[in-house]
Amino acid sequence: MSQPVCVQVNWQRQIGGGEIYTRFFTRALRELGWQVCLIVDRRAKFWSRLGMAQSELITFDHSSEIAALIPQQTTVVVTQTVLPADMAQPIAARFALGGFVHMPMDGRKLQGLAHYKAIFPVSEYVRQTLLRQDYAQVLPFPMLGIADLAHHAPQPGLPVRTSEFDWDRRKFRDRVFSWIEPLRIRGQLAFEKKPGITIGLVSRLTPIKQFPLMFKLLMPVLQRHPQVNIEVFGAGGYASVRDLKRALLPLGERVRFWGFQPDPALIYPQLDYVMSGLPEREALGLNLIEAQVMGTPVLAVRAAPFDETVIDGVSGYFFTDPRIDGAQDFSRLLARLCAARTAAAPLLMTESASQHLAQFSALAFRLRVQNAMQYLMR
After folding, report:
1. Order of strands, sheet of 197-202, starting from the edge strand that comes earlier in the sequence
2. HEC sequence for 264-322
3. What does the pLDDT look like over 298-323, one tens digit per residue?
4. For residues 208-217, average pLDDT
């Protein structure tokens, strides 16, 4: 009996959570007996570095080519970016079309979703926003995710500084700055943990995280605790990085930017805490799942979707959204953590924490993938 064929479509040109998600979704499919093809943008050069060698890569120059590139023997098509209606309709007429939604849908309407036979929300938060938009074909459960660090086993050494900018070379300003930047980061400084408490951001520096706004609100509290250092691991567009640097400027040398890191498993053991951004535009937060699995506690706003991935006092600590209380709850939390010791004491990993983290295991995810594919082919 021939293997069923799943064609995935991911047209992103830069690595983000959706691309890591594509990798572990692909692995789960293969473990379930599927043959997987991946249709990607020819300009996205990173797929070979993401362990996708066992999947056929089909490249396109323009998104209008996608429908014609889908092999005839395909069983289902699953997208990691929702297709516009004019692309989704002809594909749905030929194949069972399903797709992941990696963003909350409140206030948004994607016309292409009307042609999807099944919609895969990455969190219950996203699922509820889809239901509020009356999408009846949404899965009855969230897909969640895993801490996909298997291909990033720590090697000897430490994170090394790279660029914190994702340069858009179509823009003259970015193209010029990209030429100058190698001089600025010359020497490749290796990470060395500073004395005190280290709070890390391990994330793409994108507007949905709202880091500049969050740190502007938290800044008076952080300034009162000179033993707290902020280490930023991730890259983003020029404006996003500029705004975050402005927000963090009052902390001076207590802040360092390390750029995109290909080995996140090297980072988490160097941190006392990993911090979330503001919640409402977030869909899941793979970085928070990774941190907890690696034994690094999380500091997160008490709101969806973080309340699906963190247990307060067990795998991390919640604080009230600073837009609500002017950062008073964060102030109390940080004072308590600083008073406890200069470095974070690991949280007690109880049985409840183990049960909580089990839902982010590869085995649990594979079962959800199996159920999702059955739902798509029903």
Report:
1. 255-257, 228-233, 197-202, 273-275, 298-301, 316-319
2. HHHHHHHCCEEECCCCCCCCCCHHHHHHHHCCCCEEEECCCCHHHHCCECCCEEEECCH
3. 999 999 999 999 999 989 999 999 99
4. 98
Question: Which long-range contacts does 60-67 make (Cβ < 8 Å, 24+ apart)?
Answer: 60/11, 63/11, 63/87, 66/9, 66/11, 66/39, 66/91, 67/91
What three-state secondary structure class fits 355?
Answer: helix
List Cβ<8 Å contacts ≥24 apart for 316-324.
Answer: 316/273, 316/288, 316/292, 316/347, 317/273, 321/278, 321/279, 322/214, 322/217, 322/218, 323/213, 323/217, 323/278
Average pLDDT taken over every residue of the chain: 90
- The band of 169, judged by pLDDT with boundaries at 50, 70 and 90, is low
Report the C-alpha gap between 107 and 26 in whole angstroms: 30
Span 111-147, pLDDT tens digits: 999 999 999 999 999 999 999 999 999 999 999 999 9
Q: Where are the beta strands (DSSP E) in 1-51?
A: 5-10, 35-41
CA distance 35 to 374: 16
For residue 353, what are its two tokens? 């924490």
CA 38 to chain CA centroid, Å, is 20
CB 164, CB 235: distance < 8 Å? yes
CB 107 within 8 A of CB 132: no
Closest C-alpha among 300, 298, 285 to residue 360: 285
Q: Given a cut of 90, is residue 27 above it in pLDDT?
A: yes
The answer to whether 272 and 194 have CB atoms below 8 angstroms apart is no
Which residues does residue 118 pair with via DSSP β-bridges, in sequence order?
A: 98
Phi, psi of 149 (to 5 degrees): -110, 5
* Residue corresponding to tokens 């938060």: 125
Are the C-beta atoms of residues 256 and 232 closer than 8 Å to each other? yes
Compute the distance between CA of residue 34 and CA of residue 117 in angstroms, rounded to an integer: 19
> Measured between alpha carbons, how far apart are the two ends of the chain, in Å?
20
Distance between CA 192 and CA 189 in Å, rounded?
9
Are 149 and 160 in contact by the 8 Å Cβ rule? The answer is no
Cβ contact 94:24 at 8 Å? no
Tell me what percent of the residues of the chain surpass a pLDDT of 70.
Answer: 89
**What is the band of 153 on the pLDDT scale with cuts at 50, 70, 90?**
very low
